[in-house]
Write a structure and sequence with these properties.
single chain; 458 residues; mainly alpha; Fumarase C, Chain B, domain 1; two-stranded antiparallel ribbon; two-stranded parallel sheet
């Protein structure tokens, strides 16, 4: 059954039908299609466009179709062009002529726009739940590791000492922003296209405000052409999903590095790693690598939709059908990556002794040694030069700053005294940094309290 067949005198070529058809992927919209249709029928009766009896028949028929699809007693047939024609055909088959009145005052253009908005709104809620769960995992690691020392890096070189709590806190902030972006998209997209018609509204006395309220929208789209052709919210969503994947990929990259024999900062749980078909000693971070690899897939969806939309004149064009497969795939990809990353991280063992030992190497207390001199009255630029000379001495002697003798220190500057050793100890280097956002325990406890408040109220 085609919704537009009256104008045509011959059947569509099968290849054309297959190329034009979207039911293979838009079938997942059946709940939203039925939800929107129930709201539309309710509004039609309120406006006296259909009778109460017809409304009740339509709503009962649609509800029965939804139940049958959910329990598997009804299957979506590929012979239909899209989910909209399938649902309408099923409705007419079940309730007769009353089902033919459902499409009054509605076009497939505003119908598909509505279904997609309803679907995306639901998926944003699902994504938000997954990210919040991930944030709880980060928060637990942070709470347990305020005194787990490790090197902080710039340029992949050891830079200054931090804690594992502080390091994971950076990801907490990233994913917190991701939730905020999704929330913004949900607010901005929450206008109803239903009643926009094909592009120019309808002559029927629809109450678009009422149907918008029934469906949980803030109100109707105020321009019918924009209502059916707006895909900004999908582009925004794909951009937000790309950012989520970028954050997951950065985390994955660090897990891959930390899992290497050279670092051995972590031990992956056997359930979230794999082995080699030829090398029996291998334990590979395949989940992290796949997350890193799938990031490009989500980026591709964003670029694809931007490219699709860039040359389209108003209003609806069939090109817009391309929004669904890539958006569905991007959502599915991000959801699976979030779930697996969360489980991988929550089961990961941190080799704290190795992390701390690594933090004692690479002169990551050099800045603190320079600060020590500044606090003794030495200009910072001179202090920088003095510590640089001491680092060269350490390299020559194959040792570290904290293992130099006081005589060695004084050979470069007489300002040094015995308190230099306390000043450049790992504990001091970390815990004296207590401005908000720094790795010191006092500062971290304030952040953890803020995180707990955030997680309990959002």
């Amino acid at each position: 059954m085609k919704l537009w067949g009256g104008r045509f005198t011959k059947e569509t070529n099968q290849l054309v039908h297959n190329f034009n058809s979207s039911i293979s992927f838009d079938r997942r919209l059946f709940r939203q299609d039925i939800e929107g249709s129930i709201a539309h029928a309710t509004m039609l009766e309120k406006q006296k466009i259909i009778s109460k009896t017809e409304r009740d028949l339509i709503i009962k028929g649609l509800s029965d179709i939804k139940d049958a699809l959910i329990d598997g007693s009804l299957e979506i047939s590929q012979e239909y062009e899209d989910i909209h024609s399938f649902v309408e055909a099923q409705l007419i088959q079940r309730i007769g002529d009353a089902g033919k009145k459902l499409h009054t005052g509605r076009s497939r253009n505003d119908q598909v726009a509505l279904d997609m908005k309803l679907y995306i709104r639901d998926e944003i809620n699902n994504l938000d739940d997954l990210i919040k769960s991930f944030l709880f995992t980060f928060h637990k690691i942070m709470k347990d590791n305020t005194q787990t020392y490790m090197p902080g890096f710039t340029h992949l070189q050891k830079a200054q000492p931090v804690t594992l709590s502080h390091h994971m806190g950076a990801y907490f902030e990233m994913f917190k922003r991701d939730r905020s972006r999704l929330s913004d998209i949900k607010k901005r997209m929450n206008t109803s296209p239903l009643g926009s018609g094909a592009l120019a509204g309808t002559t029927y006395p629809l109450d678009r405000d009422y149907s918008a309220i029934l469906l949980g929208f803030d109100g109707p789209a105020l321009n019918s052409m924009d209502g059916v052709s707006d895909r900004d919210y999908l582009i925004e969503l794909l951009s937000a999903l790309s950012t989520i994947m970028m954050h997951l990929s950065r985390l994955s990259e660090e897990i891959i590095i930390w899992n290497s024999n050279e670092y051995h900062f972590i031990e992956l749980d056997d359930a979230y790693s794999t082995g080699s078909s030829i090398m029996p000693q291998k334990k590979n971070p395949d989940i992290a690598e796949l997350v890193r690899g799938k990031t490009g897939r989500v980026y591709g969806a964003l670029i694809s939709l931007l490219t699709t939309m860039k040359g389209l004149s108003l209003a609806y064009n069939k090109d817009m059908q391309e929004d669904k497969e890539l958006t569905f795939d991007a959502i599915d990809t991000v959801k699976s990556c979030l779930v697996l990353s969360d489980k991988m991280l929550s089961t990961m063992k941190f080799n704290k002794d190795i992390m701390e030992s690594s933090a004692t190497k690479g002169f990551i207390n050099a800045t603190d040694a320079a600060d020590y001199l500044v606090n003794k009255g030495v200009p910072f630029r001179d202090a920088h030069s003095i510590i640089g000379r001491l680092v060269l001495m350490c390299i020559d002697k194959n040792t570290s700053l904290e293992k130099l003798s006081l005589t060695d220190f004084k050979s470069i500057s007489p300002v040094f005294e015995d308190d230099i050793y306390e000043a450049i100890s790992l504990t001091t280097c970390v815990n004296k940094r207590n401005t908000i956002g720094a790795p010191g325990k006092e500062a971290m406890m304030k952040v953890l309290a803020l995180n707990e408040e955030y997680l309990s109220s959002n």
